[in-house]
Amino acid sequence: MSNYNSQEQTIYRNLAGKIQLGFYDGGERFPSAKEIASGYQVSYCPAQRALKMLEKDGLIKLCRGKATQILAKPYEDYLGNPVFLQRSAALLDLCEGLKLISPAICFHSLHALDYEALSEPPKEEGTANAVRSLYRQFDQALHAIGSQTALNLYYDVGSFVGSAFLDIFCSPCGKEETMRLWQEIENEYRECAIQFKANDGEAFQKRLDRLNHLFFDRIIQYLKDLPAQEGEQIPFVWEPHKGRTRYCDFVAIDMICKISQKFYPVGTLLPNGAVLADIYHVSEITIRRTISLMNQLGVTQTFNGVGTRVISEGDASIPRKLKDLTLDSNLRSFLDAIQLLTILAEPVMCHTFPYIPADTLDRLAEAVGQKGQKKAMVAAIGMVLQTVVRFSPLASLREIYSKLTHLLLVGSILRLDETGEETVPGWPEIAASIREGCRSSRSDILAHACRALFENCFASTKLSLLEIGVQGVEDIVGFD
Predict the structure, then answer these.
(1) How many Å apart are CA 256 and CA 62, to the nearest integer?
(2) Residue partners of 322: CB distance under 8 A and separation at least 6
(3) Which residues of 8-45 are buried (b: 16+ CB within 10 A; e: fewer)?
(4) Choice between 22 and 417, residue whose per-residue pLDDT is larger
(5) Which sign does the torsion angle of CA 121, 122, 127, 131 carry?
(6) What is the dihedral of CA 118, 124, 129, 133, to 10 degrees?
(7) How far apart are CA 214 and CA 220, in angstroms?
(8) pLDDT band at residue 319 using 50, 70 and 90 as cut-offs
(9) Contact in structure between 201 and 171 (CB atoms under 8 Å)
(10) What are the backbone angles phi and psi of residue 65, rounded to the nearest 5°?
């Protein structure tokens, strides 16, 4: 049986979602395996397996040498289906999270888009055409920023949502009213691009705010008005790594890096498994595997009844022993994660700020003031991530930030030769802004400082990866 988060399962769910949305109702050709592989940036095999799964479930019929036939939709009445009702609470939370972060992603993507293509009105009218046009434009926007991580996030969002958003729009309205609403949303998105191109910041922001409310408010209200559902609810889960992932490798590299920088000095005991599992947002089983790996590398030694003691700082052979972690794709995902954190930093921190305890803000202010600029910057990034994961009121944001934390662990391998005392350009100003935001209780100041923190990290990391010849990082769009 295929893993739920495998590439073919992800493709299967997204294609099934498009069928549910009516993408192919007007006779539009269903993509071939080769086109699917190219669009999802995977090899031919998982694309072909996804098609076979769709056929097995009776949704399509594969015809050799002919166009694929659409046989059925996954759900005839999705809003009345138990799957939707079991997801309703998570959908409300996810919708509120998307309303918060989507404007920032839209703003950033417009820097790299073909404005002329966006400003063209749809060639055909109708609800299905408006939905397809809006979907394609947003997909084009995500591709424009060069982030496979952002694409993976929205693929998993789309799989979880299914046709819920479209069906909610249709449920209280007639066909003509639904068509008018979707065309209005599609036109508003296009106007946002036109105002952005005209460099009219105020008009653009008004358009973007109106688009955000126009799309999300009706959906949020519908989900709020649903009666409380009995039974266990299905949560939203994002898996940026498709397939089996050895998180123990990533955690081990980060811990070895901390050992070499005296965060865990030689001779001391590591925190227990439960504490480490909480720090890294992984299971205690993963932590046990991590400790076992570090023991094999000769960095730690576990004593029954005592704990795990640091016995060595490791050496230059560590990266060679874990050479799979230096794959270009892993380091590219690391840069992707920093890019996405930069985009999300301001809206997410502003939203989370009222829920952050005063003592946590005090610890963040202290972290940026510690000796060693690089060490202080790494500590600040870690604390910001932990703060959102622990205190954001939205489960969807906690899920996204916990998985971005995992992606950042890959980059720890770049710090194995560092002491933590390295100079970070612009760090004194960023540190001062973070301290001011923490101590003045000004969410806007802290949120802006967090964006500057991740933006600085993105710029320096991209330069480092370009210098060592990591493939693909030149396509990841930076910040102006």
Answers:
(1) 50
(2) 249, 252, 253, 413
(3) bbbbbbbbbbbbbbbbbeeeeebbebeebbeebebeee
(4) 22
(5) negative
(6) -10
(7) 11
(8) low
(9) no
(10) 80, 0
C-alpha to C-alpha distances, 327 to 139, 184, 215, 295, 320, nearest whole angstrom? 27, 45, 40, 24, 12
CB atoms within 10 A of CB 382: 15
* CA–CA separation, 143 and 113 (whole Å): 9
Per the CB < 8 A criterion, the answer to whether 178 and 127 are in contact is yes
CA-to-CA separations, 288 to 37, 272, 282, 403, 465, in angstroms, rounded = 36, 10, 11, 20, 31
Q: What is the token pair recorded at 162?
A: 């299914």
Whole-number pLDDT of residue 123: 53
What residue type is 394 in one-letter code?
Answer: L
Average pLDDT, the chain: 85
Q: What is the 3-state secondary structure (H, E, C) of the chain?
A: CCCCCCHHHHHHHHHHHHHHHCCCCCCCCCCCHHHHHHHHCCCHHHHHHHHHHHHHCCCEECCCCCCCEECCCCCCCHHHCHHHHHHHHHHHHHHHHHHHHHHHHHHHHHHHCCHHHHHCCCCCCCHHHHHHHHHHHHHHHHHHCCCHHHHHHHHHHHHHHCCHHHHHHHCCCCHHHHHHHHHHHHHHHHHHHHHHHCCCHHHHHHHHHHHHHHHHHHHHHHHHHCCCCCCCCCCCCCCCCCCCCCHHHHHHHHHHHHHHCCCCCCCCECCCHHHHHHHHCCCHHHHHHHHHHHHHCCCEEEECCCEEEECCCCCCHHHHHCHHHHCHHHHHHHHHHHHHHHHHHHHHHHHHHHHCCHHHHHHHHHHCCCCCHHHHHHHHHHHHHHHHHHHCCCHHHHHHHHHHHHHHHHHHHHHCCCCCCCCCCCHHHHHHHHHHHHHHCCHHHHHHHHHHHHHHHHHHHHHHHHHCCCCCHHHCCCCC
CA atoms within 13 A on the CB side of 12: 24
- Copy the structure tokens of residue 166: 């479209």
Pairing type for strands 300-303 and 307-310 reads antiparallel
Q: What is residue 316's predicted lDDT score, i.e. its pLDDT?
A: 60
- Helix 273-280 to helix 284-296 angle, to the nearest 10 degrees? 100
Apex 141 CA angle, 137 and 147, nearest 5: 145
Kindly indicate the confidence band of residue 415, based on its pLDDT and cuts at 50, 70 and 90: confident
Residues 151-156, mean pLDDT to the nearest whole number: 86
